[in-house]
Amino acid sequence: MEALLNILSELHPDVDFDTCTTLIDDKILDSFDIVTLVAEIDAEFDVAIPAEELVPENFNSAKALYELIEKLLDE
What we know:
Blueprint: H1 2-11, H2 31-45, H3 56-59, H4 62-74
Helix pairs in contact: 1-2
């Protein structure tokens, strides 16, 4: 989780990713951020996020995104 928080903090240092649960809903993350995140997650965790998982629920919080990463790693 710490590696993911570091990636997120590099994108938006002013956001508290530990508690924020509306990253997409409040437009904190935009489409360019999502593309960057997908690439960084692939590089850091060696996991590709498939297109069908690119939904707001998976990117609204660091916790949800980390759960997605863990799910994909288990597959």
